[in-house]
Amino acid sequence: MTVRANGTVDAKERILTVALALFGERGVAATSLREVARVAGVAPGLVVHHFGGKEGLHGCVDDHVVALFRQALDSAPLTGSTAEVAAARDEAITRMFEAHPEAIDYLRRVVVTPDPGDVGLARKLIAETIVQTRMLREHGIARSRAPVEEQAVAVLVGQLGHRLLQPTLSRLWTIAGADSAVPTVTVTLHGRRE
C-alpha cells in the first residue's frame, strides 16, 4: 500500500486492496461498490471517482494482480541454470502469495470458477506470461519447440495449479476423515510438444 507522509494509507490503494479481498471472498457479481466503500472506510462516491464504477474497479483489481505477478517475477534473478531460474521464479511467486493471500482467493474465483464471460484476468495473466516467456527465451532460459503461447499456458498452470487445487484437496481430505497428512498437489501437463 502507498503510505503518505502523514502515515495514512492512500484511499485509492485501500479501495483496491479491499475490493481484491471481497472479490476473492464473494465474487465480483456478489460484491457491491457500497460494500467495498464501507469496508475501505470511504464514501461510495470516492470509489466511483477513482474507478468509474464496478467494471472499472474490476479491471483495476485484475491489473493489480497482474502487477503483483510481474513484480514478483521481475525480482527473481535470470542467472544460473534453467532449473535454478525456474526455482527462483517459483519462490518469488510463493513469497508474493504469502504477502497477498487474497490474490490466490481472487484467482480461484475468477480463473477456476469465473462468472459467465469473465475472462479479463485470465487473458491478462496469459498475456503477461507470454511476455515473460519470450523474455526467458531471449535469455536462453526457456527453450522449447512449442509455440510461446502453449509454453506460457503450461508455465502459468505450473505456477498456479497446485495453489488453486491444494485447498480443495485439503477440504476433501478433512471431509473424508482421512487419518494421514494431506498429500501435496502437483500439476503436470501431458501431451505437450517440447
TrEMBL record:
InterPro entries reported in the protein's UniProt record: Homeodomain-like_sf, HTH-type_TetR-like_transc_reg, HTH_TetR
Keywords tagged on the record: DNA-binding, Transcription, Transcription regulation
DNA-binding region: 32-51
Keyword Metal-binding: no
KW DNA-binding (keyword) present: yes
Domain HTH tetR-type: 9-69
PROSITE patterns found in the cross-reference section: HTH_TETR_2
Protein name: TetR/AcrR family transcriptional regulator
Native source species: Janibacter alittae
